[in-house]
């Protein structure tokens, strides 16, 4: 393949254009007669001048420098990089969905509202909750909205002294960051040797200042928090609310529901669990679900049905307010709904069954070749602790980089923080046994190389277009835009 | 049961269970306490074929009336601008949309480079020193900027003009309440921020002054004068929310004393899609770099000295800093920032200006046409960009219904958020509207 190393700005040539607009068909008045000169810029815009083929070739070449789920296996733990169905993409682009203005009259958007209503009901059933809000823009935004619901609930009860949120030490960084953003102090609770919430440690930190606990279940080690009933009792007993971080929901669809386990609020990452694309970082969506006692605090508007009419309800006097422009990432919700319809109750359950089977299969082979700090039944993912030889000069980062040479996107590395040299592997259900076996072979090969030819692994990757870009240099001397 | 997205056969299953040392998949769920194992099926329909799914979704879509069958004069933060065909074609390459956050730079140079290009274009447009990789939308971007200002100034009062988009102000109030911050609103005077009132409110407690220009009524605010007042506060950060397309013809925020610029770039290549996903942007002067929320891409070299791009300054972010992070945001609007990047370079130096100029000229033509008979009057007499408000004695619901009968989506009913402007309607006119469509709008309005 041709080497391509240009920035779009380096293709610019004065006089070229890549667009065509119709001729202005109203009187062509001088803009200075319409807008006072003091407001008008007298500088030319510093944008490139290109023709259409330039733009198309440039971004096609850039796409070739990327690796996606459609390229190959992407076992990035905690991110659920499952296949993104193509019908979802087509659905979001249907004229009657893509070309709707959010403020159109209610009678012209009945189909869109109905889709949202039906998706709301489906997700609530899957989560075991009573009502959803489809508005949050992402998982972290769902967390924030959910925690705001909890805060509004405590405030209405006059419990202003409840100013602490409990977060396990294995939690995603977004949990403590979210809690801080919602104005809470964070109390970290330690995991026990089995990687689970230590009930005694939890009991020691709850009190009448507890607003709630944020928990991922299965947790970031891929292990189900078996003592969830006791955890819920301790938190509820102290007057707190229980928040379910749905990052790992792909493990339990149709097998268990957060609502049944005692959770009061849940968010889903639809770009993980419900197959909408990760888009190179977004946009996703992070709908939340709540139990009945929290419904009145949801952000406005909520979607409701009255007879045959669907409408947006802004009349929630105790609502926490608004968290998002308009009604959420509708285009992503269309994809989510397409997935729920396609999979149905049986397909969703099957997805989790196979996601869990795949993770356990990989763990049981790889533990012979790598260090597995906690050996138990896993759910959809598992965490290795680097090489068995803890004195090896080959680090987890080196192993990840060597996987690039062998054609894979590496797993998540160095997370969760509580496992040294962590390698977090999440295969998902959309990968065949053959793919898993090939990846396992690659991992075994690298473990062997680490012993026999460690330098080969430490110098990896060898055959990517760039190798180990200097991150320290980037941070010390930030170059954040092209300056010619 | 086999499914097109799940390849595991019965034979695979048996082989894998044997390796694990289990009898059945059910055993792998035995760690979930029995009382929480769902003993029934989910109350949802069964799996559907592609044809059935497609047919159902199309039937729902047909219950909507889209912009392809109607003419849109509605804006208020979401705009019907032209989107070049190549935008969707290129963002549909699955190497872009099926990838995730560029954690492994060696196989993510495509994503990292377009973010770097996006940051450059946003900086060039606003005149700012730095831009991040994007935020959820314009409304949350206003709030993120305000929280940056609070962190920078260590003060807890945020002043916001009532001419800022109502939903953005509601989001700001929600977040501010959670953190115990005070939001002070400044009233309007003739459709713009009342600068005298602002002057009386700015103090050493002021973390931020936030205005929007063109403001919610489409009017161009005097940012220079506003900034001079804002900066009377010690360490007060002057934040402006802008329409990025307007910057092709209006003075750059940086030249008007603005410290942090935010906005929504939906109009630059992103479909209306019933309100989302859109594209929030944020750009600032260098002084605020380490307070910026979210991802930032930087240029560096790899071990062989080759130009490459990486995520940088991550010490601001949640996965490193946890509760001390500048924000809890852990994603960006990746694919939408790609759409906006492709839009900006496709329209290029002349194209964006032409979009801005055509929108301005058509909007001014529309206002002239609408008020010609005297039945409708301009609500304000101030310089505007592509949106303007008119008022009349005609009931606003009557106006909207009459327009809808003629397949026209009318403007935004200002009375919803500003009771003093009952029966006033805010119309948006983009380069896509034709003279014929504007004339029809005018004649239907006349006929009511």
What does this structure look like?
- The complex is a heterodimer of chains A (about 475) and B (about 450).
- With about 475 residues, chain A is α/β, with parallel strands linked by helices.
- Chain A has helices at about 50-65, 85-90, 95-100, 110-125, 140-155, 175-180, 200-205, 230-235, 260, 270-275, 330-365, 395-405, 435-450, 455-460, 470-475; strands at about 130-135, 165-170, 185-190, 210-215, 240-245, 265-270, 290, 300-305, 310-315, 380-385, 410-415, 425.
- Chain A has a seven-stranded mixed β-sheet, with helices on both faces. Chain A has a three-stranded antiparallel β-sheet with strand order 10-12-11, with helices on one face.
- Chain A is globular and about 75 Å long.
- The two termini of chain A are about 25 Å apart.
- Chain B has two domains: about 70-80 and about 350-445, Aspartate Aminotransferase, domain 1 (Alpha-Beta Complex), CATH 3.90.1150.10; about 85-340, Type I PLP-dependent aspartate aminotransferase-like (Major domain) (Aspartate Aminotransferase, domain 2).
- Chain B has helices at about 10-20, 50-60, 85-90, 95, 110-125, 140-155, 165-180, 195-200, 225-230, 320, 335-370, 395-405, 435-445, and strands at about 70, 130, 155-160, 180-185, 190, 190-195, 205-215, 235-240, 260-265, 280-285, 295-300, 305-310, 375-380, 385-390, 410, 410-415, 425-430.
- In chain B, α7 links the parallel β3 (about 155-160) and β4.
- In chain B, α3 (about 85-90) runs antiparallel to α11 (about 335-370), α5 packs parallel to α11 and α11 crosses α13 (about 435-445).
- The longest helix of chain B is centred in the last third of the chain and has 38 residues, at about 335-370.
- Chains A and B meet through α1, α2, α3, α4 and α5 of A and α1, α2, α3, α4 and α5 of B.
């Amino acid at each position: 393949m041709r080497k391509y190393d240009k920035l779009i700005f380096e293709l610019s040539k004065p006089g070229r254009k890549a667009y065509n607009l119709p001729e202005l068909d109203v009187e062509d008045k001088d803009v200075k007669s319409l807008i006072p000169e003091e407001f008008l810029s007298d500088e030319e815009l510093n944008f490139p001048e290109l023709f259409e083929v330039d733009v198309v070739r440039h971004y096609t070449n850039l796409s070739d420098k990327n690796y996606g789920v459609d390229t190959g296996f992407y076992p990035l733990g905690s991110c659920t990089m499952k296949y993104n169905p193509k019908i979802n993409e087509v659905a979001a682009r249907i004229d009657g969905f893509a070309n709707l203005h959010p403020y159109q009259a209610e009678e012209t958007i009945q189909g869109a509202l109905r889709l949202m209503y039906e998706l709301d009901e489906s997700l609530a059933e899957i989560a075991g909750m009573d009502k959803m809000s489809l508005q949050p823009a992402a998982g972290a935004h769902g967390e924030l909205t959910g925690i705001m619901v909890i805060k509004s609930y405590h405030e209405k009860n006059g419990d202003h002294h409840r100013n602490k949120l409990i977060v396990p030490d294995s939690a995603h960084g977004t949990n403590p960051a979210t809690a801080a953003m919602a104005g809470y102090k964070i109390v970290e609770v330690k995991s026990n040797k089995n990687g689970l919430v230590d009930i005694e440690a939890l009991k020691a930190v709850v009190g009448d200042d507890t607003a709630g606990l944020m928990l991922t279940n299965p947790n970031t080690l891929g292990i189900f928090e078996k003592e969830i009933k006791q955890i819920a009792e301790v938190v509820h007993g102290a007057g707190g609310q229980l928040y379910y971080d749905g990052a790992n929901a792909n493990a339990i669809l149709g097998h268990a529901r957060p609502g049944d386990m005692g959770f009061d609020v849940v968010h889903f990452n639809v770009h993980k669990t419900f197959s909408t694309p990760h888009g190179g970082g977004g946009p996703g969506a992070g709908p939340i679900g709540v139990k009945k006692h929290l419904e009145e605090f949801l952000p406005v508007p909520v979607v409701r049905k009255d007879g045959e009419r669907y409408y947006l309800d802004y009349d929630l006097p105790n609502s926490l307010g608004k968290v998002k422009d308009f009604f959420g990432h509708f285009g992503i919700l269309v994809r989510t709904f397409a997935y729920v319809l396609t999979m149905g109750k049986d397909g969703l359950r099957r997805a989790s069954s196979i996601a869990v089977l795949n993770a356990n299969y990989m763990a049981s082979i790889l533990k012979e070749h790598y260090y597995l700090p906690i050996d138990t039944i896993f759910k959809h993912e598992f965490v290795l602790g680097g090489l068995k030889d803890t004195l090896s000069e080959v680090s987890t980062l080196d192993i990840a980089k060597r996987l690039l040479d062998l054609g894979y996107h590496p797993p998540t590395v160095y997370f969760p923080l509580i496992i040294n040299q962590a390698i977090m592997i999440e295969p998902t259900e959309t990968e065949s046994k053959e793919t898993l076996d090939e990846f396992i072979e690659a991992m075994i090969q690298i473990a062997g190389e680490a012993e026999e030819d460690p330098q080969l692994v430490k110098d990896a990757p060898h055959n990517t277009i760039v190798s180990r870009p200097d991150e320290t240099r980037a941070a010390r001397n930030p170059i954040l835009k092209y300056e010619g | 049961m086999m499914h097109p997205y799940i390849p595991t056969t019965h034979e695979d299953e048996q082989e894998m269970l044997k390796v694990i040392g289990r009898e059945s998949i059910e055993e792998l769920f035995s760690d979930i306490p029995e009382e929480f194992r769902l003993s029934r099926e989910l109350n949802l329909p069964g799996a559907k074929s592609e044809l059935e799914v497609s047919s159902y979704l199309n039937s729902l879509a047909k219950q909507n009336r889209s912009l392809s069958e109607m003419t849109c004069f509605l804006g208020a933060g979401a705009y019907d601008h032209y989107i070049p065909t190549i935008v969707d074609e290129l963002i549909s390459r699955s190497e872009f949309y099926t990838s995730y956050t560029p954690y492994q730079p060696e196989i993510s140079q495509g994503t990292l480079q377009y973010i770097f290009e996006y940051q450059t274009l946003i900086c060039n447009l606003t005149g700012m020193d730095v831009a991040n990789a994007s935020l959820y939308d314009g409304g949350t971007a206003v709030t993120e900027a305000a929280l940056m200002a609070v962190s920078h100034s260590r003060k807890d009062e945020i002043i916001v003009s009532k001419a800022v988009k109502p939903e953005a102000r509601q989001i700001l109030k929600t977040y501010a309440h959670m953190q115990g911050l005070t939001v002070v609103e400044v009233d309007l005077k003739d459709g713009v921020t009342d600068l005298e009132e602002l002057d009386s409110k700015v103090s050493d407690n002021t973390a931020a002054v936030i205005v929007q220009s063109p403001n919610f009524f489409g009017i161009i605010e005097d940012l220079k004068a506003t900034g001079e007042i804002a900066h009377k506060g010690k360490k007060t950060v002057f934040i402006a929310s802008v329409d990025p397309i307007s910057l092709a013809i209006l003075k750059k925020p940086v030249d008007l004393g603005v410290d942090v610029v935010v906005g929504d770039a939906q109009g630059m290549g992103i479909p209306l899609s019933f309100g989302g996903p859109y594209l929030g942007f944020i750009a600032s002067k260098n002084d605020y770099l380490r307070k910026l929320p979210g991802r930032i891409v930087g240029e560096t070299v790899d071990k062989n000295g080759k130009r490459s791009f990486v995520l940088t300054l991550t010490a601001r972010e949640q996965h490193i800093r946890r509760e001390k992070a500048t924000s809890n945001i852990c994603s960006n609007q990746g694919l939408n920032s790609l759409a906006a990047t492709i839009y900006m370079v496709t329209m290029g130096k002349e194209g964006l200006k032409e979009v801005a100029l055509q929108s301005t000229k058509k909007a001014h033509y529309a206002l002239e046409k609408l008020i010609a008979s005297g039945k409708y009057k301009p609500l304000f007499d101030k310089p505007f960009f592509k949106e303007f408000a008119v008022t009349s004695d005609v009931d606003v619901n009557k106006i909207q219904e009459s327009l809808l009968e003629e397949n026209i989506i009318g403007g935004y009913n200002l009375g919803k958020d500003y009771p003093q402007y009952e029966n006033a309607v805010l119309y948006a006119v983009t380069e896509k509207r034709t003279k014929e469509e504007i004339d029809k709008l005018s004649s239907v309005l006349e006929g009511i």
